[in-house]
Amino acid sequence: MAAAMTQRPFDNPEPTDDPARGFIATTRVLADAAGQDGLTIGEIVDQLDERAFGLLILLFALPCLVPGLPGAQIIAIPIFLLGLQLLIGRTEPWLPGWFLRMRVKKAWLEGVAGFCDKRLHWTERVARPRLRLLAAGPAERVLGLVVALAAMTIMLPITNTIPSAAITAIALGLIQRDGLFTGVGGGLAMAWIMALVALVAALAHGANFATDALQQHAPAVRDWLSRP
Q: 144: domain range?
């Protein structure tokens, strides 16, 4: 897989596939490995270990935490694809060739590494393997569906922050095999999805009510307006 995806060798040959290395250190290694031209998505995928699904989802979800982020709808596409692959039980992540060839700027990698270092260090202290029933095996498929559905809501205008927070929690839980994190993230994602569904249903009901009322009272309104 590495030969097919990698476009050029890393400037820094240090591997990132050490299971003992935390995800924050992994983001720092990727940022340090990037040259002035950054890294391709394929090069990033090649350097991830068996936690590649969780790490990739995390890398894509973190920028989407910014409210109203321009381009969040595009970033949601790989999150959606990765969620579907978890759902069907793939063991290695797959992304389209055109996406793997896309280059990620060094500044973006530095920003992600800096955010993780400043804001997410507590997760490595708190998250640990527990409640594995909610973070591995069949639960991964359910989480894949939840991630895919939440990613679809990111594609809607100005609705990216809450589902991205949920996906981030799920990704952290997958990386650390922590069912508490995946449970919290999954619960938040489903609550968000149900809230959007309820909102759409209410708007649809309101539109139908308005249409029926207009049809019922339109003749009377027309007669009233036509009076001299």
A: 2-225
